[in-house]
Fold this sequence. Notes:
By secondary structure, the protein is α+β, with helices and mostly antiparallel strands. The chain folds into two domains: 3-230, Nucleotidyltransferase, domain 5 (2-Layer Sandwich); 247-425 and 457-489, Nucleotidyltransferase, domain 5 (2-Layer Sandwich). The chain has 16 helices and 23 strands. The strands form seven sheets. The chain has a seven-stranded mixed beta sheet with strand order 17-18-16-15-21-22-23, with helices on both faces. A six-stranded mixed beta sheet has the order 3-2-1-5-14-13, sandwiched between helices. Strands 4-7 form a two-stranded antiparallel ribbon. The radius of gyration is 22 Å and the shape is globular. The structure holds adenosine-5'-diphosphate.
Amino acid sequence: xxxxxxxxxxxxxxxxxxxxxxxxxxxxxxxxxxxxxxxxxxxxxxxxxxxxxxxxxxxxxxxxxxxxxxxxxxxxxxxxxxxxxxxxxxxxxxxxxxxxxxxxxxxxxxxxxxxxxxxxxxxxxxxxxxxxxxxxxxxxxxxxxxxxxxxxxxxxxxxxxxxxxxxxxxxxxxxxxxxxxxxxxxxxxxxxxxxxxxxxxxxxxxxxxxxxxxxxxxxxxxxxxxxxxxxxxxxxxxxxxxxxxxxxxxxxxxxxxxxxxxxxxxxxxxxxxxxxxxxxxxxxxxxxxxxxxxxxxxxxxxxxxxxxxxxxxxxxxxxxxxxxxxxxxxxxxxxxxxxxxxxxxxxxxxxxxxxxxxxxxxxxxxxxxxxxxxxxxxxxxxxxxxxxxxxxxxxxxxxxxxxxxxxxxxxxxxxxxxxxxxxxxxxxxxxxxxxxxxxxxxxxxxxxxxxxxxxxxxxxxxxxxxxxxxxxxxxxxxxxxxxxxxxxx
Length: 489
Ligand code: ADP
């Protein structure tokens, strides 16, 4: 028994990774999954194609590693959250495409329920938004023949991606989800840790459809489709998996993922902290009886600003050029606010659009690129400021992952502007690693949290170097830029 197999089912691909006893990745296999765009603002995917891609990557990773399933101790599962599938208990087949988290097709349903905003926030820690699963389930029941009737008769099952994969892996024996995925549906009460009848009634969703909710570290059942006796022993939504994979086990520990957008999560311990500034409250994980909560904030345009510099502005050839170009000249008092699709936490301004400030006759390409990178760091500081305000605690260190962490200048500037140490782990596949840690913990492959901390390695640590006065001056300029951007409508 040499490996834990982590399955990471993401929006655009499915991946399988093998991790050894030291938490080191050994082999990986990946398959693209096509998104479908049937209408403007709609994003769907073929649920069967998702399942096939998962089977494919499991087989491929075993072949690549030249091992058999018997060399696998346990399976950990992590997944794109909120994405919704409804399938028939009789046939095991989906009755509608998977509706992807980004999809806006159930916006009208949410608009009609806007008077329930306060109640929903109190119980779920979330906002009423088509992003989460409940309105997507409602949409499916409204768009298939006799949807409501079939759901009420018990014929139809609902699940997020994890439930769907567990169902298929166990040959339809297990219909379950974990607390982290349940906490993103708008139907789960995160204080009582149970499906909530009142919430289900608001969306008119029969509770019969819902999967059983289990801890994140739990024996979800045997993986039967492969004729093995390997069990699925860890299930956790992707952002929470990254928080766990970054070993943010203690209250106040936080991680930020610098991908297309940025996702910042902080462990808030055993109590859910409800936000007044648009942060989401979510279940981080449950191990045994112990539930851990997190606050989550997001930035819409993170690494995407670098893609914009490359593809639209054509100021750089490759994303990686952004660092050397930025370093060609000092910060020139230029601010770029990349509000291309509005502003997220803490401004929640859908109508804001991007802006550039502080241009002079000597502003050049380098300063433009530098200001773009800095905008990622400023936006993350905005989120961090709100988190610190709401938890009443200073965040001591930030662990980072995602494509844009390759940029050393960005990471150093982020550390400077936050006044916080930044740690970059050796294994950047923190989502898969989190699922592997969770599953390994449950099956005894990893002993306990402390032993996981010991094997967890870092490749770089950034310490704040800029003096406080400079930081204050720069950040003040950013705040002014934000204010001015929001006035231009
Ligand atoms: P996602 O999972 O959202 O697709 P990734 O974690 O793969 O994102 O990261 C991709 C993002 O990282 C892209 O937006 C890209 O512009 C950015 N990126 C990649 N390399 C660099 C770099 N050297 N400097 C800055 N940004 C980078």
